[in-house]
């Protein structure tokens, strides 16, 4: 299949072609490492060589993952949330390239967009709109968004899935799983392979926009008229197209780049409040934490979009999370061990010392020690270095702890939102939020 044919279909669907592009990443990384080693032998400074290698690696990462879209793009977006955990001396070249992946990808041609709309909304789909902009307003991992006017005059966002997204997503994730170790350096302290496995497990739901529309309807109904949050209403939906109300606001990515302190704090407070209140209010958790999905409106409310990844929590946040957090904060190690065993964080066959478990968990509760906490890259980098150092006791302790299935998406989403808070450098009343919304923490 030629590049032209692939582009006409929106997503390059030939498995061999996509695999070859993904394979170029580890080969490129390895080639640069060998070249850098040779240049250091000839006397070129290590810092200079490392900086040049990192810059080229970042450029290649964005070009390959961004062009392929699909699972590769989605993986890049997931990694971009964790860039705040990477030490500054290594992160600078990756930061811009990775954060671009949160909101940028090459668009598909207008004729292909029209073809998908014909298939999903019927050949008379144009009659449902007063106007439709063929130029996409946003482009992401498995779909792109167009601005339009619905037939009743409402301004709407039309998300159209790339043709071949299902095949490309599965192929990418299988291939990226083989290369997971090579990406580990981009996210110290983050288990990249389980991240890929989880993305693979969730992708079938994300590929059917009807499920996404149902989730968004539930959030929109609960937060309708809310003084803090806005969720755009769903206007129409089909398996590969979803139409929602158009919303405006300042993306968190822009606030991260140049927002003032008060705006950063406001955005961080709202982000954390939404994260912990949703499971109680909607029995669902928005599980796609990256700055492109959150907008701060002029009226001070946080607008939340993109409900493709949502965790179902029919009983809200598990009570065990609050109990474990509180006991670790208070240093009650024996009670902590009891609750950890009760909720299967420590299995019956695991032998681990109570003092080691407390030493591992207690630093994570630091944001709850006082009424407010200022999140920072330095703090997150310290946590990542602590648990990611393979020679440390904390690393060995962490390997002995189990993560029960019902906590998997909560853990990943909390980690992702923490990364955004650290990118914002926000000062947040974390403890007030925990006492209000996390079962078992205050009672």
From TrEMBL:
<keyword id="KW-0418">Kinase</keyword>
<keyword id="KW-0067">ATP-binding</keyword>
<keyword id="KW-0808">Transferase</keyword>
<comment type="similarity">
    <text>Belongs to the protein kinase superfamily. ADCK protein kinase family.</text>
</comment>
<dbReference type="InterPro" id="IPR004147">
    <property type="entry name" value="ABC1_dom"/>
</dbReference>
<dbReference type="InterPro" id="IPR034646">
    <property type="entry name" value="ADCK3_dom"/>
</dbReference>
<dbReference type="InterPro" id="IPR011009">
    <property type="entry name" value="Kinase-like_dom_sf"/>
</dbReference>
<keyword id="KW-0547">Nucleotide-binding</keyword>
<feature type="domain" description="ABC1 atypical kinase-like">
    <location>
        <begin position="100"/>
        <end position="330"/>
    </location>
</feature>
<dbReference type="InterPro" id="IPR051409">
    <property type="entry name" value="Atypical_kinase_ADCK"/>
</dbReference>
<dbReference type="Pfam" id="PF03109">
    <property type="entry name" value="ABC1"/>
</dbReference>
<dbReference type="GO" id="GO:0016301">
    <property type="term" value="F:kinase activity"/>
</dbReference>
<protein>
    <submittedName>
        <fullName>ABC1 kinase family protein</fullName>
    </submittedName>
</protein>
């Amino acid at each position: 299949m030629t590049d032209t044919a692939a582009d006409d279909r929106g997503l390059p669907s030939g498995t061999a072609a996509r695999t070859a592009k993904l394979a170029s990443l580890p080969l490129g990384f390895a080639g640069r490492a060998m070249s850098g080693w040779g240049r250091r032998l000839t006397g070129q400074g290590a810092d200079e060589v490392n900086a040049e290698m990192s810059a080229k690696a970042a450029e290649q990462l964005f070009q390959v993952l961004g062009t392929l879209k699909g699972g590769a793009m989605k993986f890049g977006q997931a990694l971009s949330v964790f860039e705040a955990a990477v030490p500054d001396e290594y992160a600078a070249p990756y930061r811009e390239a990775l954060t671009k992946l949160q909101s940028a990808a090459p668009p598909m041609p207008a004729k292909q967009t029209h073809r998908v709309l014909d298939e999903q909304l019927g050949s008379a789909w144009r009659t449902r709109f007063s106007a439709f902009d063929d130029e996409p307003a946003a482009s992401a991992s498995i779909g792109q968004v167009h601005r339009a006017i619905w037939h009743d005059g409402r301004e709407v966002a039309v998300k159209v899935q790339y043709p071949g997204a299902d095949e490309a997503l599965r192929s990418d994730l299988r291939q990226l799983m083989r290369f997971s170790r090579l990406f580990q350096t981009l996210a110290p302290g983050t288990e990249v392979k389980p991240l890929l496995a989880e993305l693979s497990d969730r992708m079938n739901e994300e590929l059917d926009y009807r499920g996404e529309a149902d989730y968004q309807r539930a959030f929109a109904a609960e937060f309708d008229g809310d003084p803090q949050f806005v969720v755009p209403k769903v206007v129409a939906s089909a398996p590969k197209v979803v139409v929602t109300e158009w919303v405006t606001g300042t993306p968190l990515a822009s606030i991260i780049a140049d927002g003032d302190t008060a705006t950063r704090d406001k955005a961080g407070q709202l982000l954390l409040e939404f994260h912990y209140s949703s499971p109680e209010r909607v029995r669902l958790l928005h599980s796609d934490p990256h700055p492109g999905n959150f907008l701060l409106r002029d009226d001070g409310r946080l607008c939340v979009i993109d409900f493709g990844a949502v965790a179902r929590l029919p009983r809200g946040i598990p009570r065990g999370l609050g109990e474990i957090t509180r006991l670790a904060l208070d240093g009650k190690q024996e009670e902590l061990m009891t609750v950890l065993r009760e909720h299967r964080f420590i299995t019956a066959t695991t032998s681990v010392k109570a003092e080691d478990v407390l030493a591992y968990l207690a630093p994570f509760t630091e944001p709850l020690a006082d009424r407010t906490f200022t999140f920072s890259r330095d703090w997150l980098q310290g946590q990542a270095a602590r648990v990611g150092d393979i020679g440390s006791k904390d690393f060995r302790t962490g390997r002995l702890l189990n993560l029960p299935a019902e906590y998997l998406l909560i853990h990943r989403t909390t980690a992702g939102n923490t990364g955004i808070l650290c990118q914002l450098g926000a000062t947040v009343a974390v403890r007030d939020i925990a006492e209000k919304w996390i079962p078992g923490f205050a009672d």
